[in-house]
Design a protein that fits this description.
Radius of gyration: 31 Å
CATH superfamily of the largest domain: HUPs
Number of helices: 14
Mean pLDDT: 92
Strand content: 15-25%
Strand order of the largest sheet: 3-2-1-4-6-5
Shape: elongated
Structural class: alpha+beta
CATH architecture of the largest domain: 3-Layer(aba) Sandwich
Number of domains: 3
Low-confidence stretches: none
Helix content: 40-55%
Oligomer: single chain
Largest sheet: 6 strands, mixed
CATH class of the largest domain: Alpha Beta
């Protein structure tokens, strides 16, 4: 474990360090090595263990890690996960696990979080992402060192294979437990671990070093490209919206960098959920000639194109309404509709009606499929949908835009946009005045 010890010595000194420990051979070996350097590097070691409560052995494993820490004088911190998302168990478990690790780092004012990812883990991660599709940076798998705002994640075992770690554990009689589920073909990673990486090792027993080199190379290219993208990003992405016209003038590789930055803002800890499929859909709607499009993204988000803008937002339950117009109504879009006694305004923000020509009561509602309006000064009717398109109203705005109708569902007014033939001039007879503001 010479390389692991060197990494630890180069990075740790006179500090508190948190070690993520599952109880398996990898993390127990890491904890043992760090503990051996405790005096030399003047370390205060905190062991962070998560009990996933998925197997009957989980409690016993937690007790084993706790007993080891008590024997070695290591601080033991413990968390139990009691429930998981049904849609993506592994992702949910990882999010909760790392949230606990970060909590330990913060409470202990630690500078480093150590994890026991080894060379085989890196190979599996890279291969899985290539097969499922990912963004360019994700093909690097994970790095030896990740600098966060207040602490650094360090992976000292990244240069070793799983077999080398297991041999070290047995040689030094380090206690550990083996998770039986790691041999199940149910999980994708296990299938790569059992059937793919062993074949690669048959070709070259040190193939994990080649994968590490591949990973570093991708990260180097990514860093180089990032410098150009950083200069451009805030010129094309402002107020959480991408200027599509400016974006389309960029080189393809810089466009990819820009999109990845936007995605990172909305998936800071789970960018792995975004696959090639999602990215291709994003590019497709951005480059489409259609003015208003949207596609679904993981974790209840929507990627939206609205004319010359692209943005991502949380998917919200569509708010519809149908309210009788009595006095004054505050609308979901933040605007107000109210009955007035008099008005001098002749714009599209005020309408005057004769109650003898419409059927009361009047209602303010959201649009319905098939809505048509007989526009003032225009022979015939026009679809409300087409009015929205002509006025360049985004799809998001259309869903909440108010429509004034009578009791026969006759569209009288699209406030702020178009009035129907039922609107009256000052010299004409009217007894209803409605204002939108």
């Amino acid at each position: 474990m010479t390389e692991a010890i060197k990494i630890l010595k180069d990075n740790l000194k006179d500090e508190t360090v948190v070690v993520a420990v599952s109880g398996g051979p990898d993390s127990m070996v890491l904890l043992e090595i760090v503990n051996k350097l405790k005096k030399e590097l003047n370390l205060n070691i905190v062991c962070a263990h998560v009990n996933h409560k998925l197997r009957t052995e989980s409690d016993e494993e937690a007790e084993m890690v706790k007993a080891y820490c008590a024997k070695k004088g290591i601080i033991f911190k413990y968390m139990t996960i009691t429930s998981y998302s049904k849609k993506n168990f592994h992702h949910d478990a990882r999010v909760k696990r790392y949230a606990f690790f970060e909590k330990c780092v913060k409470e202990c004012q630690a500078k480093h979080l150590l994890t026991a990812h080894h060379g085989d883990d890196l190979m599996e991660t890279i291969l899985m992402r290539i097969v499922r599709g990912a963004n360019f940076k994700s093909y690097a798998g994970f790095s030896e060192k990740i600098e966060n705002k207040t602490y650094t994640i360090l992976r000292p075992l990244i240069h070793y294979t799983k077999d080398e770690v297991d041999e070290y554990a047995k040689k030094h009689k380090i206690p550990f437990r083996v998770d039986a589920s790691n041999s199940s073909d149910k999980y994708t990673r296990n299938r790569f671990r059992k059937y793919i990486t062993p074949r690669l090792k048959e070709e070259d027993k040190n193939v994990h070093h080649k994968f590490y080199k591949f990973s570093k190379l991708i990260l180097q290219y990514e860093e180089y490209l990032s410098k150009d993208a950083d200069k451009i990003f805030h010129k094309v992405f402002k107020n959480k919206k991408l200027d599509i016209e400016k974006f389309n003038k960029l080189d393809d590789i810089i466009q990819t960098q820009i999109i990845n930055r936007i995605l990172k803002k909305y998936y800071p800890n789970d960018l792995d959920l975004i696959t090639d499929k999602h990215q291709n859909l994003i590019y497709k709607i951005i480059r489409s000639e259609k003015p208003n499009l949207e596609v679904s993204l993981p974790n209840h988000k929507l990627a939206i194109k609205a004319y010359n803008e692209f943005y991502i937002e949380e998917r919200k339950k569509l708010a519809t309404y149908n309210i009788e117009l009595v006095d004054r109504i505050t609308l979901p879009n933040g605007k107000m509709i109210e009955l007035m006694e008099k008005a001098t305004d002749n714009s599209n923000y005020t309408i005057k009606l004769n109650s003898k020509e419409v059927k009361k009561p009047l209602f303010i509602r959201t649009k319905l499929d098939g809505d048509k309006i007989e526009i003032k000064g225009l022979n015939g009717s026009k679809k409300v949908k087409d009015v929205f398109i002509d006025e360049k109203i985004t799809k998001k705005e259309r869903d909440l835009w108010p429509i004034l109708v009578d009791s026969d569902e006759k569209v009288l007014w699209i406030p702020g946009l178009k009035k129907s033939k039922f609107d009256k001039q000052k010299k004409e007879n009217y007894d209803i005045i409605v204002k939108y503001h």
